[in-house]
Design goal:
The chain has about 60 residues and is mostly helical. It has four helices and no strands. It is globular and about 30 Å long. The protein starts with a helix and ends in a 6-residue tail after the last helix.
């Protein structure tokens, strides 16, 4: 089964906005760049498992 990176990105964006965080806030908390967060959210870049875990931790959510 293929990983749907666009769906993952949209979910990250949705949860980030729900928590009233900017991409810059999320980037700062994860140690990633704002452009990388943007590319993950739009599905341009395929986030590694490590990146997904760091984002989930910053958003106080589980990976699943």
């Amino acid at each position: 089964m293929a990983v749907n990176y666009e769906r993952i990105g949209k979910r990250i964006q949705e949860l980030r906005k729900l928590k009233k965080m900017s991409q810059a806030d999320l980037a700062e908390q994860t140690g990633m760049s704002v452009s990388y967060i943007s590319h993950i959210e739009t599905g341009i870049k395929h986030a590694s498992l490590e990146s997904v875990v760091r984002i989930a931790n910053a958003l106080s959510i589980t990976v699943d």
